[in-house]
Structure formats: C-alpha cells, structure tokens
Amino acid sequence: MTQPLPTKIQDRARLLLVEDDPGVRRSLQLLLHGRGFEVRAYASGLALLADPTALGAVCLVADYRMPEIDGLSILKRLRGLGWQGQALMITAFPSARLAARARAAGYSQVLEQPLVEFGLVEAVERAMAAH
What we know:
This protein is of the alpha/beta class and 131 residues long. The protein has a single domain, classed as 3-Layer(aba) Sandwich (Rossmann fold), CATH 3.40.50. It has helices spanning 22-34, 45-50, 71-80, 96-105, 117-130, and strands spanning 14-18, 38-42, 59-63, 86-91, 109-112. The protein is globular, with a radius of gyration of 13 Å. The model is unreliable at 1-10 (pLDDT under 50).
C-alpha cells in the first residue's frame, strides 16, 4: 500500500542507503526519494559510519558484499552506537546461510538483486511502519 508523498522535507522518513555500485546506488536513491523518503546514500559502510547524522535515520538498506566492510558488520556497528532502526539487506549473492546470518544480525528481510522496484518500496514501507 503506497502512502501519499509528504509535502515537506522534514515530514519525510529518513533512510540510509549503502551500495558500492554508483549506478545502482543512484537509481535506488532516486526511486526511494521519488516515493517520499529522505535518502542519505553512501558508497561504503565506512562512509556511513563516519556520518554522525546517520543515527537519526529510521531505516537502513545495505548491500551485503562491499569492499572494506560488509552489510552484516555495518548493522552490528550501528547497533553498537545505539541505532535502533529497521534494516533491509540487498544482495546479488543470496543463499539460505546468508539469509539466516542477516536475520540473526537484525535484518528484517534480505532482498535479491536485481531488485524489483515495487518489492523494494514495499519492503521499505513495511520496515518503516514497524519502526
């Protein structure tokens, strides 16, 4: 169920997106922004973790496989900083083992890439509603 777009930027739900592929990152950022989310996009998990404003977000969408730090470690470090938002993992390398590890780390869902536009938006909306 799609909700009406907020009219003011301060009414938008804050979402963190970390994806190392620039084209994928930009397309996901545009998609989610167009659906009414304020999206902070990062090329790496370390860049996200270095941003003190990240802790104000309510949802994380993180790629699993990235250089420097993977999606599981990103969420673990955010939780260590006291962040309590919802988290969704995206991966081009899905497996039952990864799904189990992601859920144990606190991800509510693992989405397989390439992403289906409506699947991602609906997953983000469900995660936001659970927050």
